[in-house]
Specification:
Largest sheet of chain B: 6 strands, mixed
Pfam families (chain B): NIR_SIR, NIR_SIR_ferr
Distance between the termini of chain B: 62 Å
GO molecular function (chain B): 4 iron, 4 sulfur cluster binding; heme binding; metal ion binding; oxidoreductase activity
Number of strands of chain A: 5
Keywords (chain B): 4Fe-4S, Heme, Iron, Iron-sulfur, Metal-binding, Oxidoreductase
Number of domains of chain A: 1
Helix content of chain B: 25-40%
Pfam families (chain A): DUF2849
Number of helices of chain B: 19
Helix content of chain A: 10-25%
CATH class of the largest domain in chain B: Alpha Beta
InterPro entries (chain A): DUF2849
Strand content of chain B: 15-25%
Radius of gyration of chain B: 23 Å
Shape of chain A: globular
Largest interface: A-B, 25 and 31 residues
Radius of gyration of chain A: 13 Å
Oligomer: heterodimer
Number of domains of chain B: 4
CATH topology of the largest domain in chain B: Sulfite Reductase Hemoprotein, domain 1
Strand order of the largest sheet of chain A: 3-2-1-4-5
């Protein structure tokens, strides 16, 4: 039996800057994970990933990442995605320099 | 230092121009990412967790003051004001934007540097003993050979698509400071029976998921045969190496699966062919390269001020005791500048620090700097008379930490703070260990102890050969750290042994403290180092200290 589907977001790195970005409901790419589209349906997730992969002029390496609903919007469930959403822990650089951190 | 020939200059410039056009074509959509990726990797450009990362080669770890200043300029202009020195004598810039990378490569080319073959399945940056040309115990300077290998391997048509990446290190001294036994090919310069220079060649070493200590494939390769012999090894590997499984593609697996004897026989067969191809031009080139690595015109200064400072300044004295190494000239010293101040990121230097180091090298070290695989900066030739002034200047820029070879001189890979391959973070663990032992004020009592941390199984942090090795893993969605003990990266290379179940991020620093306290408690005296103690007592006392309830715990894990 296959694993039950868990909610996802589509994420990638932007082509020019290389920073982490998330696919929004209105087909945009946001540098803020809270603005991502939280996908609860597996078939829809596949379609959204395909769509993301058709955006090579904007993003690189799109994939589906586990996420959960939070008060501000989607939140990471794994520490790797949490780091991507805020930046490195040794300097206040990356997203945490501009936007509030997203806790796992 | 080696100066680029017209050929080198034209080649590097052509690569910059090519890459500029490739980036433009990627941005305007003419190249897909699948097409572009191998091109960017050939030029050292990775895509990491938060940004692109440009890995720049520092061939055999040698830099001039002018090159160091240019690295500072690049860090400030196109990055975020700092750079990270790696365990393979590279520097990594963590925040470049794609459109700026061609300008960064141009700025590197302007000072005879490049990022070519710092990635991909090619022969990577050739590394060497960071004390090369200065160490008192050296047979010969390894850098001319390393430069010859750089020229030979750069854009070598046959070796651009090897089964997997390929790393070469050279040492010219019996004390192996270049970790040669952990390289695909390790080269140790030695003298033959008649005093002539030759090379002991090791093959099939490597860390990563399958750590293997390099094996001697040939005890003594005469000087003129080195390049054809290495070409024979790489050709043999290129044919035999597995391309079906990335995890079995390194030469260490090829040698193990083929058997050393059979592999050696195949290399000898190829060698008969390669040797005939080399007509001696390589030796002419090597001779010309050697002429470019003259010893500095040593300044003869009275060592009085140095000796006076030793008696009047205890902080200076403490620093000299651990951060200096013996120079072949009695009135000079090799200075290791620690990039490991407790709480800082191992291997990171700010642009201001890079400039200050460049100035210091210019004023006191004949304009030369080195980067060590242990992520420190070396001033290879400093007159002893200049040491008090160098120490004062280092203090002003926060680089006078007296901890070289001690517990806070930690190797740490970037880990999951930057690296897309990482499974856990390394940097915060290193920072916390250094701060913990600083607070305990035990560092100098503990004595020589090398901690090496990798944030994934690929082992960029050399954890297998740390006296205490730490490997960060993702265990069911939580960072978990496995400990190994008794590893040694020197000429007596030993792989560490795992202590047992790993520790969470919140517990691993405490576990390291437990290990160190067990050593301090049971050692014969301060003269017995951690490694000697481990070799005498084995892992048992540490296991006991770490897992006092071991039987219960194992039952729990089994259930």
């Amino acid at each position: 039996m296959s694993k039950p589907f868990t909610p996802k977001v589509v994420t990638a790195n932007s082509l020019l800057k290389g920073d982490a970005v998330w696919l929004t409901e209105d087909d945009g790419w946001s540098p803020d994970m809270h603005e991502a589209e939280l996908i609860e349906d597996e078939a829809h997730a596949d379609l959204r990933l395909l769509w993301a992969q058709s955006q090579p002029h904007l993003v690189v390496g799109a994939y589906l990442a586990d996420a959960k609903a939070g008060p501000m919007g989607p939140e990471p469930t794994h520490f790797r995605e949490a780091f991507r959403s805020r930046g490195p822990s040794n300097y206040p650089l990356g997203k945490q320099a501009g936007t509030p951190a997203v806790e796992a | 230092m080696y100066q680029y020939s017209d050929f080198d200059r034209d080649f590097v410039q052509a690569r910059v121009d090519q890459f500029r056009a490739q980036v433009a074509r990627r941005i305007d959509g003419s190249l897909t990412e699948d097409e572009f990726k191998p091109l960017r990797l050939m030029n050292g450009l990775y895509l990491q967790l938060h940004a692109y990362m440009l890995r720049v080669a520092i061939p055999y770890g040698t830099l001039s003051s002018a090159q160091m200043r240019q690295l500072a300029m690049i860090a400030e202009r196109w990055d975020k004001g700092y750079g990270h020195f790696t365990t393979r004598q590279n520097i990594q810039f963590n925040w470049p934007e794609l459109g700026d990378v061609p300008d960064m490569l141009q700025a590197l080319a302007d000072v005879q540097m490049h990022a070519i073959q710092t990635s991909g399945n090619t022969i990577r940056n050739v590394t060497a003993d960071h004390f090369a040309g200065a160490a008192a115990d050296e047979v010969a300077d390894p850098r001319p050979v390393a430069e010859l290998l750089r020229q030979w391997s750069t854009d070598h048509a046959e070796f651009q698509f090897l089964p997997r990446k390929f790393k070469i290190a050279v040492t010219g001294a019996p004390s192996d400071r270049a970790v040669t036994a952990a390289h695909d090919i390790g080269i140790r310069i030695l003298r033959g029976e008649d005093g002539e220079i030759g090379y002991r060649v090791l093959v099939g070493g490597g860390l990563g998921r399958t750590p293997v200590i390099g094996k001697v494939i040939r005890e003594f390769v005469p000087g003129a045969d080195l390049l054809p012999y290495l070409e024979a090894i790489v050709e043999t590997y290129n044919l035999l190496g597995r391309r079906d499984n990335k995890y079995k593609a390194r030469i260490k697996i090829t040698v193990n699966e083929t058997g050393l004897e059979a592999f050696r026989a195949k290399v000898d067969e190829r060698f008969a062919l390669t040797r005939a191809r080399f007509t001696g031009i390589d030796q002419q080139i090597l001779a010309a390269i050697k002429a470019q690595f003259p010893e500095p015109a040593y300044r003869r200064l009275e060592t009085g001020p140095y000796e006076a400072a030793l008696t009047t300044d205890p902080a200076f004295r403490a620093w000299t005791e651990v951060n200096l190494a013996a120079h072949r000239q009695a009135d000079h010293a090799i200075v290791t500048v620690s990039l490991k101040a407790p709480g800082e990121t191992p291997g990171d230097a700010t642009a201001a620090q890079m400039r200050a180091l460049a100035d210091l090298a210019e004023a006191h070290a004949y304009g030369e700097l080195r980067i060590s695989h242990e992520q420190n900066v070396i001033l290879p030739h400093v007159p002893k008379a200049a040491l008090p002034g160098v120490f004062r200047a280092l203090k002003e820029i926060g680089l006078a930490t007296a901890n070289v070879g001690l517990i806070s001189d930690i190797i740490a890979c970037p880990g999951m703070d930057y690296c897309a391959l990482a499974t856990a973070r390394s940097i915060p663990i290193a920072q916390e260990i250094a701060l913990r032992f600083e607070a305990l004020k035990l560092e100098h009592d503990i004595g020589p102890l090398k901690i090496k941390i990798s944030g994934c199984i690929n082992a960029c942090g050399h954890h297998h050969v740390g006296h205490i090795g730490i490997l960060g893993l993702d265990r069911a969605g939580v960072e978990n750290y496995q400990l190994t003990l008794g590893g040694d990266g020197t000429e007596e290379m030993t792989l560490g042994e795992r202590t047992g179940p790993g520790f969470g991020a919140e517990a691993v620093v405490g576990a390291v403290e437990t290990i160190v306290l067990a050593y301090l408690d049971k050692r014969e005296g301060p003269e017995e180092t951690f490694l000697q103690f481990y070799r005498r007592m084995g892992i048992a006392p540490f296991k006991q200290a770490l897992y006092p309830d071991a039987p219960k715990r194992e039952r729990f894990v089994a259930a």
